[in-house]
Design brief:
Elements lengths: L10 H8 L3 H19 L10 E2 L1 H8 L24 H5 L8 H12 L3 H8 L8 H13 L3 E4 L2 E4 L15 H8 L5 H10 L19 H18 L7 E7 L4 E15 L2 E8 L8 E5 L3 E6 L9 H8 L6 H10 L9 E8 L1 H8 L9 E3 L1 H11 L3 H12 L6 E8 L8 H10 L3 E5 L1 H19 L2
Antiparallel strand pairs: 1-3, 2-3, 4-5, 4-8, 5-6, 6-7, 9-11, 9-12, 10-11
Helix pairs in contact: 1-2
Length: about 450
Protein backbone atom coordinates (compact mmCIF):
# COMPACT_ATOMS: atom_id res chain seq x y z
CA UNK A 1 0.00 0.00 0.00
CA UNK A 2 1.45 3.38 -1.03
CA UNK A 3 1.78 6.29 1.36
CA UNK A 4 -1.00 8.86 1.32
CA UNK A 5 -0.27 12.28 -0.18
CA UNK A 6 -1.92 15.03 1.89
CA UNK A 7 0.34 18.03 1.23
CA UNK A 8 -1.48 21.30 0.53
CA UNK A 9 -0.29 23.34 -2.50
CA UNK A 10 1.98 25.62 -0.48
CA UNK A 11 4.46 27.86 -2.28
CA UNK A 12 7.54 25.83 -1.44
CA UNK A 13 6.02 22.70 -2.99
CA UNK A 14 4.74 24.51 -6.09
CA UNK A 15 8.10 26.19 -6.62
CA UNK A 16 9.73 22.76 -6.50
CA UNK A 17 7.24 21.40 -9.05
CA UNK A 18 7.83 24.40 -11.34
CA UNK A 19 11.43 23.30 -12.03
CA UNK A 20 12.24 26.93 -12.79
CA UNK A 21 10.09 30.05 -12.83
CA UNK A 22 6.93 29.56 -10.77
CA UNK A 23 5.39 32.64 -12.37
CA UNK A 24 5.81 31.05 -15.79
CA UNK A 25 4.92 27.48 -14.75
CA UNK A 26 2.28 28.04 -12.05
CA UNK A 27 -0.54 26.11 -13.74
CA UNK A 28 1.74 23.18 -14.47
CA UNK A 29 2.90 23.11 -10.84
CA UNK A 30 -0.71 23.09 -9.62
CA UNK A 31 -1.53 20.35 -12.13
CA UNK A 32 1.30 18.17 -10.77
CA UNK A 33 -0.15 18.64 -7.30
CA UNK A 34 -3.54 17.40 -8.59
CA UNK A 35 -1.81 14.47 -10.30
CA UNK A 36 -0.38 13.39 -6.94
CA UNK A 37 -3.74 13.73 -5.22
CA UNK A 38 -5.26 11.49 -7.90
CA UNK A 39 -2.48 8.90 -7.55
CA UNK A 40 -1.76 8.97 -3.82
CA UNK A 41 -4.51 11.02 -2.20
CA UNK A 42 -7.08 9.70 0.24
CA UNK A 43 -10.30 11.41 -0.86
CA UNK A 44 -9.38 12.04 -4.51
CA UNK A 45 -7.67 8.67 -5.05
CA UNK A 46 -8.45 7.12 -8.47
CA UNK A 47 -9.50 3.51 -8.83
CA UNK A 48 -6.43 2.65 -10.87
CA UNK A 49 -4.00 -0.27 -10.88
CA UNK A 50 -0.61 0.15 -9.20
CA UNK A 51 0.93 0.00 -12.69
CA UNK A 52 -0.73 1.95 -15.48
CA UNK A 53 -0.33 3.61 -18.85
CA UNK A 54 -1.29 7.15 -19.77
CA UNK A 55 -4.37 5.85 -21.60
CA UNK A 56 -5.53 3.90 -18.54
CA UNK A 57 -5.14 6.97 -16.32
CA UNK A 58 -6.96 9.12 -18.90
CA UNK A 59 -9.93 6.76 -19.10
CA UNK A 60 -10.36 6.81 -15.30
CA UNK A 61 -9.62 10.50 -14.71
CA UNK A 62 -11.78 11.97 -17.49
CA UNK A 63 -15.34 11.15 -18.58
CA UNK A 64 -15.88 8.66 -21.44
CA UNK A 65 -16.57 11.50 -23.89
CA UNK A 66 -13.16 13.11 -23.34
CA UNK A 67 -11.35 13.48 -26.72
CA UNK A 68 -8.50 11.05 -27.30
CA UNK A 69 -6.68 13.10 -29.94
CA UNK A 70 -3.62 15.34 -29.69
CA UNK A 71 -5.41 18.71 -29.69
CA UNK A 72 -6.54 20.73 -26.68
CA UNK A 73 -9.94 19.26 -25.72
CA UNK A 74 -13.02 21.38 -26.25
CA UNK A 75 -15.36 22.11 -23.36
CA UNK A 76 -17.36 18.94 -24.13
CA UNK A 77 -18.73 17.97 -20.72
CA UNK A 78 -19.06 20.14 -17.61
CA UNK A 79 -18.62 17.04 -15.46
CA UNK A 80 -15.31 16.13 -17.06
CA UNK A 81 -12.14 16.90 -15.12
CA UNK A 82 -10.86 18.92 -18.10
CA UNK A 83 -13.67 21.43 -17.54
CA UNK A 84 -12.56 22.45 -14.04
CA UNK A 85 -10.53 25.62 -13.64
CA UNK A 86 -7.39 25.84 -11.55
CA UNK A 87 -9.37 27.82 -8.95
CA UNK A 88 -11.96 25.01 -8.71
CA UNK A 89 -9.22 22.46 -8.07
CA UNK A 90 -7.59 24.64 -5.42
CA UNK A 91 -10.46 26.22 -3.55
CA UNK A 92 -13.14 23.55 -3.41
CA UNK A 93 -15.50 23.61 -0.38
CA UNK A 94 -13.98 20.44 1.09
CA UNK A 95 -10.45 21.81 0.92
CA UNK A 96 -8.50 23.53 3.65
CA UNK A 97 -6.86 26.21 1.53
CA UNK A 98 -7.60 29.82 2.40
CA UNK A 99 -7.98 31.48 -0.99
CA UNK A 100 -7.00 35.00 0.10
CA UNK A 101 -3.91 33.89 2.01
CA UNK A 102 -2.81 31.52 -0.76
CA UNK A 103 -3.08 34.25 -3.39
CA UNK A 104 -1.13 36.68 -1.23
CA UNK A 105 1.61 34.10 -0.87
CA UNK A 106 1.82 33.53 -4.65
CA UNK A 107 1.84 37.26 -5.39
CA UNK A 108 4.56 37.87 -2.80
CA UNK A 109 6.71 35.02 -4.14
CA UNK A 110 6.34 35.58 -7.89
CA UNK A 111 5.54 39.28 -8.24
CA UNK A 112 2.58 38.42 -10.46
CA UNK A 113 -0.19 41.02 -10.68
CA UNK A 114 -3.36 40.06 -8.78
CA UNK A 115 -5.60 40.53 -11.82
CA UNK A 116 -3.26 38.38 -13.92
CA UNK A 117 -3.28 35.70 -11.21
CA UNK A 118 -7.09 35.71 -11.11
CA UNK A 119 -7.25 35.32 -14.91
CA UNK A 120 -4.71 32.52 -14.80
CA UNK A 121 -6.68 30.62 -12.16
CA UNK A 122 -9.81 30.75 -14.34
CA UNK A 123 -8.09 28.66 -17.01
CA UNK A 124 -9.00 24.98 -17.32
CA UNK A 125 -6.20 23.17 -15.53
CA UNK A 126 -6.43 19.95 -17.55
CA UNK A 127 -7.62 21.62 -20.76
CA UNK A 128 -4.22 20.93 -22.31
CA UNK A 129 -2.80 18.66 -24.98
CA UNK A 130 -2.03 14.99 -24.55
CA UNK A 131 1.63 15.92 -25.02
CA UNK A 132 1.49 18.22 -21.97
CA UNK A 133 -0.05 15.50 -19.82
CA UNK A 134 2.57 13.00 -20.97
CA UNK A 135 5.21 15.57 -20.04
CA UNK A 136 3.64 15.77 -16.57
CA UNK A 137 4.07 12.02 -16.17
CA UNK A 138 7.69 12.24 -17.31
CA UNK A 139 8.34 14.98 -14.75
CA UNK A 140 6.82 12.90 -11.95
CA UNK A 141 9.08 10.04 -12.96
CA UNK A 142 12.10 12.35 -13.07
CA UNK A 143 11.47 13.54 -9.50
CA UNK A 144 10.87 9.98 -8.27
CA UNK A 145 7.11 10.08 -7.65
CA UNK A 146 6.66 7.40 -10.32
CA UNK A 147 8.85 4.74 -11.89
CA UNK A 148 8.73 4.31 -15.67
CA UNK A 149 9.49 0.78 -16.77
CA UNK A 150 8.39 -1.40 -19.70
CA UNK A 151 6.36 1.46 -21.18
CA UNK A 152 4.24 1.72 -18.01
CA UNK A 153 4.24 3.91 -14.92
CA UNK A 154 4.51 2.32 -11.47
CA UNK A 155 3.42 4.03 -8.28
CA UNK A 156 6.01 4.12 -5.52
CA UNK A 157 5.41 2.67 -2.06
CA UNK A 158 7.40 5.36 -0.25
CA UNK A 159 6.82 8.98 -1.25
CA UNK A 160 10.05 10.89 -1.91
CA UNK A 161 11.33 13.85 0.09
CA UNK A 162 9.87 17.18 -0.94
CA UNK A 163 9.91 20.75 0.33
CA UNK A 164 7.66 21.66 3.22
CA UNK A 165 6.09 24.93 4.22
CA UNK A 166 7.74 27.09 6.86
CA UNK A 167 5.31 25.67 9.44
CA UNK A 168 6.55 22.11 8.93
CA UNK A 169 9.89 20.75 10.06
CA UNK A 170 11.04 17.48 8.41
CA UNK A 171 14.73 18.11 7.79
CA UNK A 172 15.11 15.90 4.71
CA UNK A 173 12.44 17.72 2.76
CA UNK A 174 13.66 21.11 3.90
CA UNK A 175 17.19 20.26 2.83
CA UNK A 176 15.90 19.18 -0.57
CA UNK A 177 14.22 22.54 -1.03
CA UNK A 178 17.30 24.41 0.14
CA UNK A 179 19.13 23.02 -2.91
CA UNK A 180 16.42 24.14 -5.32
CA UNK A 181 18.49 27.15 -6.43
CA UNK A 182 20.90 24.76 -8.17
CA UNK A 183 20.40 23.28 -11.62
CA UNK A 184 18.01 20.37 -11.07
CA UNK A 185 20.59 17.75 -12.11
CA UNK A 186 23.24 19.20 -9.81
CA UNK A 187 20.66 19.53 -7.04
CA UNK A 188 19.88 15.82 -7.30
CA UNK A 189 23.58 14.95 -7.08
CA UNK A 190 24.00 17.21 -4.05
CA UNK A 191 20.98 15.65 -2.32
CA UNK A 192 22.37 12.15 -2.89
CA UNK A 193 26.00 12.88 -2.04
CA UNK A 194 26.07 15.83 0.35
CA UNK A 195 26.81 13.48 3.26
CA UNK A 196 29.90 11.33 3.70
CA UNK A 197 29.67 7.65 2.71
CA UNK A 198 31.38 5.37 5.21
CA UNK A 199 33.22 8.39 6.55
CA UNK A 200 34.53 9.59 3.16
CA UNK A 201 33.31 12.60 1.17
CA UNK A 202 32.78 11.49 -2.44
CA UNK A 203 31.18 14.55 -4.05
CA UNK A 204 33.05 17.81 -4.71
CA UNK A 205 32.31 20.95 -6.70
CA UNK A 206 35.16 22.98 -8.19
CA UNK A 207 34.32 26.48 -9.42
CA UNK A 208 36.49 28.84 -11.40
CA UNK A 209 36.18 31.82 -9.06
CA UNK A 210 38.17 34.86 -10.16
CA UNK A 211 37.40 37.06 -7.16
CA UNK A 212 40.80 38.00 -5.65
CA UNK A 213 41.43 36.99 -2.05
CA UNK A 214 41.82 40.65 -1.10
CA UNK A 215 38.12 41.28 -1.84
CA UNK A 216 36.55 37.97 -0.74
CA UNK A 217 35.63 39.39 2.67
CA UNK A 218 34.08 42.43 0.99
CA UNK A 219 31.98 40.22 -1.29
CA UNK A 220 30.79 38.21 1.71
CA UNK A 221 29.86 41.44 3.49
CA UNK A 222 27.80 42.59 0.48
CA UNK A 223 25.98 39.24 0.35
CA UNK A 224 25.19 39.45 4.05
CA UNK A 225 24.00 43.06 3.75
CA UNK A 226 21.77 42.17 0.81
CA UNK A 227 20.32 39.28 2.77
CA UNK A 228 19.42 41.69 5.59
CA UNK A 229 17.85 44.14 3.12
CA UNK A 230 15.75 41.41 1.48
CA UNK A 231 14.36 40.47 4.90
CA UNK A 232 12.82 43.97 5.21
CA UNK A 233 9.27 44.86 4.18
CA UNK A 234 9.28 46.61 1.82
CA UNK A 235 12.74 45.90 0.41
CA UNK A 236 14.42 49.32 0.07
CA UNK A 237 16.19 50.69 -2.99
CA UNK A 238 19.97 51.08 -2.69
CA UNK A 239 22.62 53.44 -3.99
CA UNK A 240 25.68 51.61 -5.28
CA UNK A 241 29.07 53.17 -5.79
CA UNK A 242 30.38 50.93 -8.54
CA UNK A 243 33.74 50.57 -10.26
CA UNK A 244 32.61 50.00 -13.83
CA UNK A 245 34.88 48.39 -16.40
CA UNK A 246 32.50 49.50 -19.16
CA UNK A 247 32.48 53.16 -18.12
CA UNK A 248 36.09 53.10 -16.97
CA UNK A 249 35.38 54.92 -13.73
CA UNK A 250 33.45 54.78 -10.47
CA UNK A 251 29.79 55.69 -10.83
CA UNK A 252 26.74 55.92 -8.56
CA UNK A 253 23.68 53.84 -9.48
CA UNK A 254 20.34 53.75 -7.67
CA UNK A 255 18.71 50.34 -8.08
CA UNK A 256 16.24 47.90 -6.61
CA UNK A 257 18.24 44.76 -5.66
CA UNK A 258 16.46 41.75 -7.15
CA UNK A 259 18.73 38.72 -6.65
CA UNK A 260 22.30 37.46 -6.91
CA UNK A 261 23.72 34.98 -9.42
CA UNK A 262 26.97 33.08 -9.67
CA UNK A 263 27.82 33.14 -13.39
CA UNK A 264 31.11 32.41 -15.15
CA UNK A 265 33.63 32.83 -12.33
CA UNK A 266 32.02 35.66 -10.32
CA UNK A 267 28.95 36.66 -8.28
CA UNK A 268 26.61 39.34 -9.61
CA UNK A 269 23.78 41.45 -8.23
CA UNK A 270 20.89 41.87 -10.66
CA UNK A 271 19.62 45.40 -10.12
CA UNK A 272 16.75 47.38 -11.68
CA UNK A 273 16.90 51.17 -11.94
CA UNK A 274 20.11 52.74 -13.27
CA UNK A 275 22.96 51.08 -15.16
CA UNK A 276 26.52 52.51 -15.12
CA UNK A 277 26.25 53.76 -18.73
CA UNK A 278 22.57 54.74 -18.29
CA UNK A 279 21.70 52.74 -21.41
CA UNK A 280 19.45 50.12 -19.75
CA UNK A 281 17.12 49.88 -16.75
CA UNK A 282 18.69 46.58 -15.71
CA UNK A 283 22.31 45.74 -15.00
CA UNK A 284 24.36 42.88 -13.56
CA UNK A 285 26.75 44.37 -10.99
CA UNK A 286 29.81 42.29 -10.10
CA UNK A 287 29.90 42.15 -6.31
CA UNK A 288 33.66 42.62 -6.02
CA UNK A 289 33.39 45.86 -8.03
CA UNK A 290 30.86 47.39 -5.61
CA UNK A 291 32.54 50.02 -3.43
CA UNK A 292 29.59 50.82 -1.17
CA UNK A 293 25.89 50.00 -0.63
CA UNK A 294 23.63 52.63 0.89
CA UNK A 295 19.94 51.83 1.60
CA UNK A 296 17.55 54.63 0.65
CA UNK A 297 13.96 55.45 1.48
CA UNK A 298 11.35 55.01 -1.24
CA UNK A 299 10.33 58.65 -0.95
CA UNK A 300 13.86 59.91 -1.73
CA UNK A 301 13.55 62.59 -4.47
CA UNK A 302 16.44 61.27 -6.60
CA UNK A 303 15.09 57.75 -7.10
CA UNK A 304 14.86 57.20 -10.90
CA UNK A 305 11.40 57.66 -12.38
CA UNK A 306 11.22 54.14 -13.81
CA UNK A 307 11.99 52.64 -10.40
CA UNK A 308 9.63 54.96 -8.52
CA UNK A 309 6.84 54.10 -10.97
CA UNK A 310 7.30 50.35 -10.49
CA UNK A 311 7.20 50.83 -6.71
CA UNK A 312 4.02 52.91 -6.82
CA UNK A 313 2.35 50.36 -9.11
CA UNK A 314 3.36 47.48 -6.78
CA UNK A 315 5.15 45.87 -9.72
CA UNK A 316 8.75 45.73 -8.56
CA UNK A 317 10.60 43.03 -10.54
CA UNK A 318 11.18 39.56 -9.13
CA UNK A 319 13.82 36.87 -9.78
CA UNK A 320 11.24 34.96 -11.83
CA UNK A 321 11.33 37.70 -14.47
CA UNK A 322 15.08 37.18 -14.89
CA UNK A 323 14.68 33.41 -15.20
CA UNK A 324 12.04 33.85 -17.89
CA UNK A 325 14.14 36.33 -19.85
CA UNK A 326 17.22 34.11 -19.69
CA UNK A 327 15.16 31.24 -21.08
CA UNK A 328 14.38 33.33 -24.17
CA UNK A 329 17.97 33.95 -25.30
CA UNK A 330 21.48 32.70 -24.53
CA UNK A 331 23.42 34.99 -22.20
CA UNK A 332 23.36 36.33 -18.66
CA UNK A 333 22.92 39.96 -19.80
CA UNK A 334 19.19 39.28 -20.12
CA UNK A 335 18.37 42.97 -20.61
CA UNK A 336 20.10 43.16 -24.01
CA UNK A 337 18.07 42.56 -27.19
CA UNK A 338 17.48 38.99 -28.33
CA UNK A 339 19.25 38.43 -31.66
CA UNK A 340 19.26 35.50 -34.08
CA UNK A 341 22.57 33.65 -34.42
CA UNK A 342 23.61 31.14 -37.08
CA UNK A 343 26.65 28.92 -36.50
CA UNK A 344 28.50 26.31 -38.56
CA UNK A 345 30.58 23.56 -36.95
CA UNK A 346 32.90 21.02 -38.50
CA UNK A 347 30.88 17.80 -38.52
CA UNK A 348 33.41 15.74 -36.54
CA UNK A 349 33.76 18.46 -33.91
CA UNK A 350 29.99 18.80 -33.63
CA UNK A 351 29.43 15.06 -33.28
CA UNK A 352 31.99 14.80 -30.49
CA UNK A 353 31.50 18.05 -28.52
CA UNK A 354 28.24 19.80 -29.51
CA UNK A 355 25.60 17.24 -30.41
CA UNK A 356 23.71 15.96 -27.39
CA UNK A 357 24.85 18.80 -25.11
CA UNK A 358 22.68 21.47 -23.45
CA UNK A 359 23.62 25.04 -24.38
CA UNK A 360 20.31 26.93 -24.30
CA UNK A 361 16.62 26.25 -24.83
CA UNK A 362 16.82 27.93 -28.27
CA UNK A 363 20.03 26.16 -29.36
CA UNK A 364 19.08 23.62 -32.03
CA UNK A 365 20.59 21.96 -35.08
CA UNK A 366 19.09 22.90 -38.45
CA UNK A 367 19.59 21.72 -42.02
CA UNK A 368 21.72 23.37 -44.69
CA UNK A 369 18.61 24.69 -46.58
CA UNK A 370 17.26 26.07 -43.30
CA UNK A 371 20.56 27.92 -42.80
CA UNK A 372 20.17 29.47 -46.28
CA UNK A 373 16.63 30.59 -45.48
CA UNK A 374 17.77 32.05 -42.15
CA UNK A 375 20.28 34.29 -43.94
CA UNK A 376 17.67 35.32 -46.51
CA UNK A 377 15.19 36.19 -43.80
CA UNK A 378 17.43 38.06 -41.36
CA UNK A 379 19.77 40.05 -43.61
CA UNK A 380 17.91 43.01 -45.06
CA UNK A 381 20.76 44.58 -47.08
CA UNK A 382 20.79 42.85 -50.51
CA UNK A 383 24.58 43.10 -50.97
CA UNK A 384 25.33 41.59 -47.54
CA UNK A 385 22.75 38.87 -48.10
CA UNK A 386 24.34 37.87 -51.43
CA UNK A 387 27.81 38.00 -49.90
CA UNK A 388 26.92 35.69 -47.01
CA UNK A 389 24.94 33.28 -49.20
CA UNK A 390 27.94 33.03 -51.51
CA UNK A 391 30.18 32.20 -48.53
CA UNK A 392 27.69 29.61 -47.34
CA UNK A 393 27.60 28.02 -50.82
CA UNK A 394 31.31 27.21 -50.39
CA UNK A 395 30.67 25.35 -47.13
CA UNK A 396 29.77 21.68 -47.00
CA UNK A 397 26.07 20.78 -46.55
CA UNK A 398 27.38 17.88 -44.43
CA UNK A 399 28.68 20.27 -41.76
CA UNK A 400 26.57 20.95 -38.64
CA UNK A 401 24.50 24.14 -38.61
CA UNK A 402 22.91 25.53 -35.48
CA UNK A 403 20.59 28.42 -34.69
CA UNK A 404 20.22 30.09 -31.31
CA UNK A 405 19.00 33.41 -29.92
CA UNK A 406 21.68 35.38 -28.06
CA UNK A 407 21.77 38.58 -26.00
CA UNK A 408 23.44 41.00 -28.39
CA UNK A 409 22.97 44.60 -29.51
CA UNK A 410 26.32 45.27 -31.17
CA UNK A 411 29.93 44.22 -30.68
CA UNK A 412 30.33 46.64 -27.74
CA UNK A 413 27.01 45.72 -26.12
CA UNK A 414 27.07 41.94 -26.03
CA UNK A 415 27.15 39.17 -23.48
CA UNK A 416 30.85 38.52 -22.91
CA UNK A 417 30.29 34.99 -21.64
CA UNK A 418 28.72 33.98 -24.96
CA UNK A 419 31.56 35.67 -26.88
CA UNK A 420 34.14 33.78 -24.78
CA UNK A 421 32.39 30.49 -25.53
CA UNK A 422 32.42 31.24 -29.28
CA UNK A 423 36.12 32.09 -29.14
CA UNK A 424 36.81 28.80 -27.36
CA UNK A 425 35.11 26.91 -30.23
CA UNK A 426 37.18 28.55 -32.94
CA UNK A 427 38.46 27.52 -35.47
CA UNK A 428 35.96 24.64 -35.47
CA UNK A 429 33.06 27.10 -35.32
CA UNK A 430 32.08 29.81 -37.81
CA UNK A 431 29.65 32.66 -37.07
CA UNK A 432 27.33 33.65 -39.92
CA UNK A 433 24.80 35.74 -38.03
CA UNK A 434 24.79 38.37 -36.60
CA UNK A 435 26.78 39.70 -39.54
CA UNK A 436 28.50 42.52 -37.63
CA UNK A 437 29.69 39.98 -35.03
CA UNK A 438 31.13 37.88 -37.87
CA UNK A 439 32.94 40.95 -39.22
CA UNK A 440 34.28 41.80 -35.78
CA UNK A 441 35.66 38.28 -35.38
CA UNK A 442 37.31 38.61 -38.80
CA UNK A 443 39.10 41.77 -37.65
CA UNK A 444 40.13 40.21 -34.32
CA UNK A 445 41.46 37.02 -35.89
CA UNK A 446 43.40 38.97 -38.49
CA UNK A 447 45.13 40.90 -35.71
CA UNK A 448 45.77 37.64 -33.84
CA UNK A 449 47.24 36.03 -36.97
CA UNK A 450 49.67 38.92 -37.48
CA UNK A 451 50.62 38.81 -33.80
CA UNK A 452 51.69 35.18 -34.04
CA UNK A 453 53.24 35.56 -37.51
CA UNK A 454 55.37 38.50 -36.37
CA UNK A 455 56.46 37.80 -32.79
Amino acid sequence: MSEIFTDPPHIELLQWFARGSLKQNLLRAIRLWVWLRSLYGEQDHLVLDHTFTYAQWRDVFFTPTHPKGEAIPNLHDLNCACAKTAAQWLFNPKGDILETEWKKSVISHTGIDKSDLDKLLQKRLFGVTRRSLNKDLETLADIKWLVYENEKYHRVDELPSRPVSTDEKPNTAANAYQLNFLHEDLSAIAQNHSQQINGIQRFFVHLDYVIPKSTIDLVENWQWELKELWAQTPVPPIKLNYSSARVGDKVDCIVFPVCIYYVQRAVYLCGYGESPDRQTDWYNFRLDHIQSITPWEWNHPTIPQNLQQRYQQLSLPSPDYIAVEMSKAWGFDFYLPSTQMLLRFDRDFSDHYIKGTERHDTFEEISYPQAQRLIQRHLLQPELKLKLLEILSKRSPKDAYYQVFIRYKNYKQRDNNVIMRLRAWHPKCEVFLPFDLRESFTTDFTKQFHLYQNP
